[in-house]
Amino acid sequence: MKIVFIPAKINSEIDAKKMQNLKLPVNIAIAYSIQYKDITFKIKEILSKNHKITSITQVLGCSKPKFIRGTEAILLVSSGKFHAISLSAETNLPVYVLEAGGIKKISKEEVDSFAVRKKASYLKFLNAEKIGILVSTKSGQENLKKAISFKNNLKNKKSYLFMGNNINVKEFENFPDIKAWVNSACPRMDFDSSAINISDLEKN
């Protein structure tokens, strides 16, 4: 059986005049999800007339892109707020989402709310006696060695490894003895769950 992957694309007309009139900082980076790739490069061409495009990069579900110094803001060509809020929180840069020919800036309240949830997850970890360490078997997300090293260096906590190809955060409730979850897989899991990323714990 031969498997063929066909990339999904979003077809949309770009209003060049509207794009040129968007109120954005001069030095901007453009990020996009794969469905919007073709549109993004059209947008880049239009915006380059009045802006300096510091970088253009694709965002993946589990990526944490970096942007060069001098970037004043990020224009995200995508749908939803999943990437937008995470990008704003990680980079401390204003993030604008392009939607319906206009832009919406991710608010400080949205970023602050995300930060509060992350802090709550960290406090749960500190106070937990039993923790679960999540390990994905997916290519590009598998960090078993890091998870084992983290487990071996834990003090005053009982820890258990949970491995799987697909990690369903709804399954957490099936393990009531586990009071905190540490994620070694996709770092975006912290957006819609109480899991805390190993990378965040390594900073503390």
Textual characterization of the structure:
- With 204 residues, the chain is of the alpha/beta class.
- The chain folds into two domains: 16-106, Rossmann fold (3-Layer(aba) Sandwich), CATH 3.40.50.11850; 119-203, Rossmann fold (3-Layer(aba) Sandwich), CATH 3.40.50.11860.
- It has helices at residues 16-20, 37-47, 82-91, 108-127, 144-153, 198-203, and strands at 27-32, 52-58, 73-77, 95-99, 102-105, 130-136, 158-164, 180-183, 196-197.
- β6 (130-136), α5 and β7 form a beta-alpha-beta unit.
Short description:
This protein has helices at residues 16-20, 37-47, 82-91, 108-127, 144-153, 198-203; strands at 27-32, 52-58, 73-77, 95-99, 102-105, 130-136, 158-164, 180-183, 196-197. With 204 residues, it is of the alpha/beta class.
Find the count of extended strands (DSSP E, 2+ residues).
Answer: 9
Seen as an oligomer or otherwise, the chain set is single chain
The termini sit apart by: 48 Å
Helices, by number, come to: 6
Q: Give Rg in angstroms.
A: 20 Å
Structural class, please?
Answer: alpha/beta
CATH architecture descriptor name of the largest domain: 3-Layer(aba) Sandwich
Strand percent estimate: 15-25%
**Overall mean pLDDT score?**
84
Count of discrete structural domains: 2
Into which percent range does the helicity of residues fall?
25-40%
